What does this fold into?
Amino acid sequence: MNALKGRKVVKRLILALLGIAMLSLLTACELDDDGKPRGSQVLWDRSGVPHIYAARADSLAYAFGRAQMQAHPELLLRLYAQGRGRGAEYYGAVFEAGEPFPSNMAEVDRLVRAMGFPERSKQWLQQQSPRMRAYLDAFVAGINDQAAASGSLSPAARAVLPVRSEDVLAHTLRIFFSYLSGSTATGAANCSLVYPDAVATPINLIGGSNGWALGPAKSRSGNAMLLANPHLLWGGSHTWFEAQFKSPEYDIYGATLVGLPVMRIGFNQRLGWVHTVNTQDGCDLYQLKLSGRQYLLDGVARDFETKRETLYIRQPDGSLQAEQLTLRRAEQGPVFDKDGQSYALRIVGVDQLQTPGVLEQWWDMAQAPDFLAFRKVVARLQNPYHNIIYADAQRNIWAAFGGLTPRRAGGDAAYWAQPVDGSRSDLIWRQALRLDELPQATNPASGWVQNSNSVPWYMSKPALDPAAYAAYLSPRASPLLREQRGIELIEQTPAFSLDTLLSAKHDTRLLLADRVLDDLIGYARASGDAGLIAAAQVLAQWDRRSDAASKGAVLFAAWVAASGGEEALRYRQEADPAQPYRTPAGLRDAGFALSKLVAAAQGLQQAGVPLDIAFGEVYRLRRGPAGGAARLDQPASGGAEGLGAFRTFSYIGDSDGRQRAIFGDTFTALVEFGRPLRAKVINTYGNSSQPQSPYYGDQLPLAARNEMRDALLKREQVEAALAKREWFRR
It folds into this structure.
C-alpha cells in the first residue's frame, strides 16, 4: 500500500513538473516585470469544460476569451451586438434564435439606446482599475484571435468583429438591466410597463435560483456545505458557461454567463458562493406631468435632455433601413411613453449610483482569503442586484440580501411598486442603503441559511423581523412554495452528506399537492360524477411527485393551469406571513375546483393523453430544433415554479404536443468544504450552444437520471479525462 501511494505521489509530481516545464519552455522569453511568465494551458475535459492554467491574470483572461469563443461563438457575438445597440444592423429586426424564443433585435436596440448603454460602457471602461483594464483587454484579444482562427462564423457574426473591451461592459450593463427592471419582486415589476410589448416577456423571464449553505450542525462531517442551483432561461444572455481558473493568485471552479469575463458563482478550497434572484426593488417609475414639451418638477417647467440617434435595421435584401430615434431624459432618468403617458425610469447600478466595478468585485470575491475579507469585498456593493449565499472551509455560513436598494423618502414596498408622482423632487432618491442596513444571517443557531427567491425574512430560523428594516426594502409576504419545500427538506434531514444533498437537490415533491389535493379528491369522490371519480382515483394513487415515472402529475398540473395558475386557486387559508410555512392551504370552493378538474381531464382526453400518463412522457428535456436529426430528447423530472417543486423547470408547448423545458436547472454545484474538498456539478443543457458541438446537450441524459458529475478539481483528474489540450503564448 505504501508503495502504491508512493507511485501515485511520484505520478502527480511528474505531471506537475511537466506542466511547469512546458509552460516555462513556451514562455521563457516572455516574462513580465515581476517575473511572471506569460502564457496559458487550457485542458478541455470530456464534458467540454476548459481548465485554464496560467501564472498571470491577463493570461487567464486571454485563454478564457478563446474558450468562450470556441464554445459559444455565434451567441457571444450576437450578445455583444445587442450591447452596442446594433443587433438589428447586423442580424435584422428579428433573429430566429430557436432556443428558446426569437429575439426582437430592433426592440432591444431601442431599449439599449434609450438607456445609453453604448456610451456608458465607454465611460465605465475609463473607470476600471489598471489590473481590470488589462484583464478586459486580454479577454477580448482572446475572443478576436479565436475568431480570426475560425472559418465557420456566420456573416452577421463576423460583421460584429472586432470585439472591444467596452463591448464586455455594455453587455454587463444589459444583463443587470434585465435583472433590475424585470425582478420577480413586486417592487421592480412596474419598470416593465414601459417596455415595448414585443420584448417585455423574453427580456424579463429571468426567474430565480435555489441557494443553501449548511453549517456543522446540519452536516454529517461537520464541514460546511453549499448548494448552488441557479434557474435561468435556457438560452440568450442567461446561458451559463462552466470553467476552472488555476493560477498562484486566482483559483476558482464555477460558471459565468456567456460574455462575462469572470466567474459569477463558484468555489475553491477556501470558500464558495451562489447568487439568487432578489426581491429587491432597485427600479422605479415616475409618472411625469407635462406642460407642452416640458415636464413639471416642483411646479417648475423643465426641458428634457434630448438626444437623437440613428438606428439601422438590416432588411432581407441586405440593405439598411434607417430609423431616427429621439431619446429623452428627465431629472429622474430616461423617459418612455406608454399608453398616452410619459414615464421616467430610475434604476440603480446601470444608470443611477453606477457600479462600474462589478466585474472586479466578482474577481476579488474569489480571491478573498476568508469570510471577513469576502464580506468586505461584498460591502462595496458594486453588484447592484442578487442575494448571496456563502459557505467556507472555516465552517462559516452567510446569507445576505445584496444589491443596491435606494434610500427612499418613506413609503412601503407596495407604494413603490406603482409609478410614483414624477412632479415631486423629494421622491427622487440619490443614495443607497449600506450592506449593514440590509437583511443578513450569519452562522445562525439553526445551522442553515437559504434563499429560493422569496422575500429575505426567511433566510433562516428564527425568521428576521421586517419591522427592523426600511418598510420599502421588500414586501412583507410569505415564502414561495418552492422555498417552503426547500426549508422542509433542510429540516427533515438531521444532517447532510454530499449524497443526501444530491437527493434533496433533485426532490420533485409538489408541495401544492400536499396543501390542496386531499380536498380536491374528497370533493371529486363526493360529486357522484363518474368522470370526476375516475380522475380522483388517478390523483389518489399518485405519489405527489413530478418524477419522470409519476402518474397523476400531468393531470394535477393541467388542473392548476385550468384554474388560472396557483395564484387563482380559491384557498381555504390564503398565504399568510403569520403562518409562513403552512399556507396557502386547502380549497374552499368545491364547485370551482371540480369545474376546473373536468376541464383539465377533458383537455387531456381530447388530446389523446391518458389521465394516468407518466410525467416524463409529456414533459421533456430537449436540445435542438424540432425534427432535427440530432435533436436530444430526454424525459424530465421537476415541476413548474408554482407547483412547489424544489427541482424546477418551466415548460412550453412543442410541435408534437409535448412540453419542453425552457427554464430551470442550469449550472448546479454541490460542495463540501472538507479536506479534500468534494463537489458535484452539472450544466444541464451542456457547455456549448453550438449544435454541431459534442457538448451541445450532452449532459441532458445525466440530468434525466438525476445525476451529477464529480467536479475535476485537480490537475491529474483533468489529465485523466482530457479531450483536448491547448497552449497560448499571450
The longest strand covers residues 305-314.
